[in-house]
């Protein structure tokens, strides 16, 4: 699935993706370079989350090819479900550290470098003062910052986000978009599924529009 030999970050060529015998995306082609910021937009049922699963290697193409020029441990992921869950019985630093689990193999404990990086990710998100707090005590905006720090802990080169602004009030949503823009400018590529077409036009350098009729626009 992950091919580190090519220059493209992501390259889809006539890819079809689905599950349980049902094709959701058919004959989709697009490519991204390192440093790109892609927003994936479209109505419910058009295949946005299915594409994310393909990029993450959780779904194999039914036909065509979907190549990701990264190793799995270089990709950070923030799911729509994780954003919605707001009552983790854990401390903030513990949650951010869990972003390293995918690259730890059989090692049972976090090392000192990972702990320093977790604290640095929190500082980058403007949440360094929250590291000793309990997650359930935080406001909605603070929780988003912590979960983004967790995703960034696993995102060496690519950050994949599925509706990260869902349910946020306008001020917190704009803060989130500003943080993502800053992260992208610092060298992390972004793929974000969103219903917010205005934000897509404002922040992304590529927009992929999915429709149920297997018609796609990539600009």
Give an account of the 3D structure.
- The protein is of the alpha/beta class and 219 residues long.
- The chain has seven helices and nine strands; from the N terminus they run βββαββααααβαβαββ.
- It has a domain at 88-155.
- It has helices at 48-55, 80-84, 92-97, 112-124, 140-153, 170-185, 197-203; strands at residues 10-19, 22-32, 37-42, 63-68, 75-78, 158-162, 189-193, 206-210, 216-218.
- The longest helix is centred in the last third of the chain and has 16 residues, at 170-185.
- The radius of gyration is 17 Å and the shape is globular.
Cα gyration radius (Å): 17 Å
Order of helices and strands: EEEHEEHHHHEHEHEE
The low-confidence runs, each spanning 5 or more residues with pLDDT under 50, are 1-5
Number of helices: 7
Number of strands: 9
Q: Strand content of the residues, in percent?
A: 25-35%
Strand order of the largest sheet: 5-6-7-3-8-9
Mean pLDDT: 86
Helix proportion range: 25-40%
Q: The biggest beta sheet, please?
A: 6 strands, mixed
- For the termini, the CA-CA separation is 25 Å
Question: Which shape, going by the Cα principal axes?
Answer: globular
Structural class by secondary-structure content: alpha/beta
Set down the secondary structure blueprint.
Elements: E1 10-19, E2 22-32, E3 37-42, H1 48-55, E4 63-68, E5 75-78, H2 80-84, H3 92-97, H4 112-124, H5 140-153, E6 158-162, H6 170-185, E7 189-193, H7 197-203, E8 206-210, E9 216-218
Parallel strand pairs: 3-7, 3-8, 5-6, 6-7
Antiparallel strand pairs: 1-2, 1-4, 8-9
